[in-house]
Amino acid sequence: MAWLVGEAAGIFVLRERAEVLQRADLFAGMCVLVGAVAALAMFLQNATFTHSGLRLTNRLRHQYFSAILRQEVGFFDKASNRVGAVCARLSGDAAEVQAATGLRLGLVLQGVSSMLIGVVMAFCYGWKLTLVGLAILPLMFASIFLERLVSQSAQRLERAAMEDATAVATEAIVSIRTVQSLGVERVFLQRFSEALGRAQAAVAPGMWWRGLVLGLDLYVPFMIFCSVMVYGAILVAREGFAYNNVMLSVFLHLKYF
């Protein structure tokens, strides 16, 4: 699609009306065709990777629950292995595996393949512009890596902090008749509120760093886009570089980088 948009941008420098209309109709039809193929490909990608992720999650949960049932009684006497904490890990850990290996895996493969194709095409149409974009690319990789580290750290802290709150809620709900007969609803509510407060206090400091890194992650692609656009204008003015090739390189950088 980036190639089509870049080539279509060259229509605006044509002088013949008939040629402009002919090429506009051609690229419009190609866009419709590419859109239909992309829609079918995305449907198959999402369906297959989501299905595989669900099957993997079900298998992990079955094995995890089977391993829990084989534990000795002393295993459940530990504070970290209370009913609520075990149930939270049973549902949460498997869901995280599904998020990492299901649809996200397909998106990662799509991004890597698109980037490789974009780099090759960009080199073919304008190697000077591509080198400018690649010079800033390590900064984008660094921002993505930092964002992933901060995000994973925040998720670990949140999961560990929420286990206490989940354990309190599970114990109260499982023994709801006993809780109501003893009239200790306020006690469990207070414990649950305190656990939520500790979870919020543990996660809140990392949100500032996560926001800063995420902002950097969003800023770097626009830096690449701006650099390629400015240098492309210089090449057009001084070296007679084709206008449509500049736009093609710009859209390739914007789409795939």
Automatic annotation (TrEMBL):
GO terms for molecular function: ABC-type transporter activity; ATP binding. It is found in: Membrane. PROSITE patterns: ABC_TM1F. This is Multidrug resistance protein homolog 49-like isoform X2. The chain crosses the membrane at residues 26-44, 105-123, 129-150, 218-237. Pfam families: ABC_membrane. InterPro entries: ABC1_TM_dom, ABC1_TM_sf, Type_1_exporter. Residues 1-257 form the ABC transmembrane type-1 domain. The keyword Transcription regulation does not apply. GO terms for cellular component: membrane. Keywords: Membrane, Transmembrane, Transmembrane helix. It is a multi-pass membrane protein. Its main location: membrane. It comes from Papilio xuthus (Asian swallowtail butterfly).
